[in-house]
Amino acid sequence: MKNNEEMVKKLISEGWLKQKSLISAFLKIKREDFVLEDLKKMSYLNEALPIGFGQTISQPLVVAFMLELLSPQEGEKILDIGAGSGWTTALLAEIVGEKGKVVAIEIVPELVEFGKRNVSKYNFIEKGIVDFVLGNGAEGYLKEAPFDKILCSASLKGEVPLAWKEQLKIGGRIVTPIFHSIWLIEKIGKNNFKESEFEGFAFVPFVEKK
User: Fold this and answer.
1) Contact (Cβ atoms closer than 8 angstroms) between residue 153 and residue 81
2) Is there a domain that residue 210 lies in?
3) Which CATH number belongs to the domain containing residue 40 in this structure?
């Protein structure tokens, strides 16, 4: 695929991208703005690309699939855990708009700076839509809780952290990889959750504070 438009068309034709707001965000927020300089020519390959520090920018079809499950809406407050390159952060910011908020949390200081620079290309930080935070995503982000949605882009080695479940509004959704599956966790009551598993994916492992 040569460009962003071709990538989006392919994601639509293969059934990964369906929601109008997501299609529109994918068309506007170009993946090439979030990859390392020497990998720009590979921006539109349907594969994960390294961004340094053992982390990657996820493969386009995986991002599309996870965001379809998350179903972000205008005006929502969303926690983006393991924000890395900032691509998912910017896609979410485009959808939630000026009435919404995206808190991007990343544990690697250099990637916080990288992600911030990338997201700033779209003025989301300047407009107050995005906060980029250096922190331990396993703890969520109590200061801005509760959240309508929580997205994690690195693979957990077991249970979803309790903090995420507690910081999610009733009716909210968590989308996260656990081992080689993507999980959708819907909060249907104070301590009541509905879980769905989608198998057959690969992710970098979730980094926690030692």
Assistant:
1) yes
2) no
3) 3.40.50.150
Reply yes or no: is the peptide bond before residue 205 cis, omega within 30 of 0. Answer: no
Q: Give the DSSP H or E segment for 195.
A: strand 192-199
Respond yes or no: is residue 181 known to be catalytic: no
Reading phi first (left if > 0) and then psi (alpha if -120 to 50, else beta), residue 53 is in left
Tokens of residue 163, six digits: 């903090």
> Two tokens at 78?
């969303």
Kindly state whether residue 105 falls inside one of the protein's structural domains: yes
Among 20, 42, 17, 16, CA closest to 31: 42
Nearest to 159 by CA among 142, 144, 143, 174: 174
For 103, the token pair is 């808190």
3-state secondary structure of 139: helix
Q: Which amino acid is at 179?
A: F
Q: Would 74 be classed as within a structural domain? A: yes
The alpha-helical segments, DSSP class H, found in 4-82 are 4-13, 20-28, 60-70
Interval 31-85: pLDDT, tens: 999 999 999 999 999 899 999 998 999 999 999 999 999 999 999 999 999 999 9
Q: Token pair for residue 82?
A: 């393991």
Query: What is the band of 209 on the pLDDT scale with cuts at 50, 70, 90?
Result: low
Assess if residue 208 is contained within a domain.
no
Number of domains in the chain: 1
* Marked catalytic residue, from 13, 24, 58, 155: 58
Domain of residue 184 covers 4-199
